[in-house]
Amino acid sequence: MAAIRLEALTKTYATPRGDVRAVERVSLSVGDGQICVLLGPSGCGKTTTLRMINRLVTPSSGKVFIGGHDTDAADPVELRRTIGYVIQQIGLFPNMTVAGNIGVVPRLLGWSTERTRARAEELLAMLAMEPKDFIDRYPGELSGGQAQRVGVARALAADPPVLLMDEPFGALDPVNRETIQDEFLRMQHALKKTVIFVSHDIDEAVKLADSIAIFRSGRLEQYAEPDHLLAQPANEFVASFVGSDRTLKRLRLIRAADVMARASGNLDATAPTVRASEDLRRVATLFLEHGADSLACVDERGELVGYVTRAALAERLGSARR
Amino acid sequence: METLAFIVNNLPIIGERALEHLSIVGVAVGVAIITGVPTGIAISQSQRTADTVLYLGSIVMTIPSIALFGILIPILSKIGQGIGYLPAVIAAMLYAQLPIIRNTYTAIRNVDPALRSAAIGMGMSTAQRLARVELPIALPVIIAGVRVAVVINIGVTAIAAYIGAGGLGTFISRGISQTDVRQLVTGALALGLLAIAADYALLGLQRHLTPKGLRARRDA
Hints:
Chain A is an alpha/beta fold. Chain A is 38% helix and 25% strand.
């Protein structure tokens, strides 16, 4: 159990021009096994908020609870060993091999050499990197995408319940970023970590998040599920940050099955079909390409399970809008 | 030819002087490493202290060695060690401080802040971070500082012959006072060879102690 709760978390820095509030009374909670993305322009306090969770930054006031325990009470060094940490600059130690890097926290926790190595192999395999090809390489011999996979593996090494990720995929090229995001999601389905993920990319947030927290100059502007956030931005700032194409962004969040009217019977061979498990991006594409008013939905075996109409699509996308 | 004959006839004594020389340099640099590396690490935590310490180190470097021996004679005379081995070691040790402190300081400061951040974020204590991350990465630059210190010290110790510390400088001081070119050239040659050999040996050590991962990156 590792639900995270922030309570009126505040960080104030004293500067010659007076106190600056980097983070101001941020409260939110993230359920066990959920991904929460902290989203906002640079300098909005999202990274500071993240770093207060593992005490790299000491809060000026407010509390952080992990699994119901007040982190004030814990020794910061011990606390950090139970929290995976991934940063944008990756920060692999160049003097250690891939195995050495992944084994950092296990060694700090006193695991045996064999167990640490076995864990490194397991994690590399999970991240689609052939263990025997990579385990004895040095970070200088890895590509950016490979290095960040090792960065993620290192954070997961001691199986911490909580993972903090500070723009982990921000420095990767778009193709690599998509791939590693997909791998990360797949892994998250199996591992169910509680993840706090800092990003400035709304598309990444919509793709990964169970909940999104939008920050502006140290304040939490809105905290909601992605679909809700896109459908009902709380204010002008959130609306402009998520973009005028927010309806298009919602398409990926909704599956055809969610908007279809159930039906059964024989499939009309000429009608365009879509799988019920696919998201609305595919549905919208087919509507645009075929000019049809309805699509047949099929299951994995190709049997008809229902129909999606243009009207139903419009209603679903408009329904949550004020 | 005369010089060559002198060298061949005096090989055992040249060897003995070279060992004396090395013992002064070795002890001085050894002590300087023991004191200078921790000092360099300590001052890397605070810019102000660093500026002060490096400034003091630079001042020491500007004192001519012969003057430093002069200063040390009355002080060390109080314990009956005004001339000879001890003042030579102390002077050499003082000259070795700056290169070692400065290189340690620079090397630690130049460790990528992201690595420090990652190390702390993963739950390393300060000592673990230094031992496992910062020092291994800083080591090649620290040893480069030791190399500079050793070469400086071989020169300083040559002058220590004038305060009776022995070493290869004896050939030069005698060569000058007896206007004996053979001794003069022998001393100069031996000192040059010693400096080159020591520097080369330490270069090997530096390569050997450079973490493999850092070597790989440089080659790539």
